[in-house]
Structure formats: C-alpha cells, structure tokens
Amino acid sequence: MNEPFVLADLIPVLAPIFVIQLILMIIALVLCAKAERTRGPKWVWVIVIVLINIFGPIAFFIGGRRSE
Amino acid sequence: MNDSAKTLNVHGRFEGRATTGWVRYVVMVQKEVLELARSYKLLWVPLVFILLGMMQPVSTYYMPVILERAGSLPEGTVIDIPMPQGAEVLAQTLQQFGTLGVLVLVLAFMGTVSGERMSGVAAIIMVKPISPLAYIGSKWTAMLLLTWGSLTAGYLGSWYYTGLLIGEVPLIDVCRSLFVYGLWLSMVMVIALLLSTWLRSPAAAAFATFGGALVLTLLAHLFPAFLGWTPGSLSGYAYQLAASSMEDSKMLGYAVASTLVGAGVCISLSAALLSKSSTDE
Lengths: 68, 281
Description:
The complex is a heterodimer of chains A (68) and B (281). Chain A has 68 residues and is mainly alpha-helical. In chain A, 69% of the residues lie in helices and 0% in strands.
C-alpha cells in the first residue's frame, strides 16, 4: 500500500465489475423500453436505472413492471 | 404463460396411463425454469450475486486508498488498517449474501405461489391431474436451482478475487462453506415458499420470510449451546468453515439434519395448504 497509486493498475481489477454493472443496466433499460406498463412513469425508471448503481436495476426488476 | 399452459393442456389430455407423476413433475419444472428465463431472473440474480461477491475483496483491498482519496483527513494522517486474512474476506462475502443476497432472492420469489393464485394460473393447474406436491416441488426445484447457481457463481468470483488481491484460501474450505451456506439459503427459500403459499400478499410473505430468517439466526447465535443444532446456526458454521476453524463438527451434522427435516416439513405443509385452499375455492 506504500507504492504510489496508479489508475492504470486499477483497470484490470475493476473492469469486470463495471462490465457486469453495465450489463445489468442495459438489461433493465431494454426491459423498461419493452414493458407496456410500468409502475410509475417510465422516464423516472430510466433515471433510476442509469443513476443508481446496482440497486437501480434491481429495484426495476423486482418492482418496476406490472404483470399483464 | 400461454406456451406453458399449452404444454400442460397436451399433457393433461394424454394423462392417464401415458404420463406418470414424475413426468408431470418434470414438465412443471420446465415451466418454472422457462418462467425464470422469461422474467430474466435467470440472468440478473446470478449477476447481482457475482457483483456482490467480487466487490467484497476489491473494496477491502482498496479501502485505505478510498479513505485517503475521499475522506477529508488532515495532511499527513497515517491510515493503518491491517489487511484481513483471505478467509475473513470470504466470511464477509457470505455475510453480504446473507443480507443483500437473501433480500434479492426473497423479493424475486415473494409472489411465486401467491401471484399464480391471484392470477388464476394456480387454479388452472390444480384442475389438471397434477398433485399439489408436484406443483410445490417444481417451484422449489426452480428456486433451489437459481439459489445454488447464483451463490456458487458469486462465491467463486469472490474466491478468485480474494486469491488475487488478498491471500489464497484453500478450495476445499471454500467448497465446504459453500455447501453449508447453500443449505441455509435453501432453508430460507423453503420458508419463503411456505409463506408465499400461506399469505395472500407477496410483500407480507417477503417481510415474514426475512424476519423469520433473522429470528432463526439470532436465536441460534445467542444460544449456541442450546440451539446449535438448528438451521439458524448454519450460517455461523459456514463462516467458521471458510476460516477453517471449525470447532464442533458434530453440531454441524445435527444442524444439517434438522435443516433437511425442516425443509421437508415446510414443503409438505405448503402442499397441504395448497390442496386445502384449492378445494375451498
């Protein structure tokens, strides 16, 4: 921990985490776009999904869609 | 929904001598797995577990850097956090799975039976020659499939990162603790299934499951001498196994046995509740 902190060292470690977060976000956005009805306005869900890491997409998956 | 109903129709028509109870059960499991795939649960639940698992060792490793960068500490403050052992990080990962992971699983499955009863799908299925036990059993199989798959993926992700960043942990310890923790999660999911059959509201079922799991663990951890054999103590044993500091393996055996019995009782109860309420309506 004494060596200087270099951003380049972080990238291989953090890349998988970012990729998985991105996948979750994209799935949630696609489902949100495809859903006929969502619980609450759609644009609010888009903001929630994009801005809140991990928990935004999870919240949409669990409670965002109304079942037909 | 339509497709699976059609399959059931076909099997309903050919029932009699042609299909056995086992075949119907397999068809029901296929329907449940199809539903998991359609609702994308098969995709996002494992991804969340992998994310939770990977973030634990990474955030532990970078904690000093994060504190240094983000905290408004005065110049020259020396941050000296001892780096934990690899096994400790794995135990912390299991704790994450025990709170956030259980929350996600329980919320994902809270309406598994009550939702189908509300929408009338359960009634359609129950007039077919499918026993309540096969119906509940198929739900349970699909739940366990997703639970064990997600847990394994997330835990192995955590193990890989822990080995990379913090310290190697023997794979055998990881597998043992994975097995014991998986049993505990299975118990929680069986309780969720029972409550989802019993209670009308999915939200009530979710909260009751979460509360019940909390009470079970708390009691077992408060009175280890009296309640060390109960399912609630399994999570504690899993932490010990990850750290390979298992003290009482006899109690672990009892806990595993009592969990299996408890799961069996819960499933029979759910099936009984389902057949009783379907004759009532």
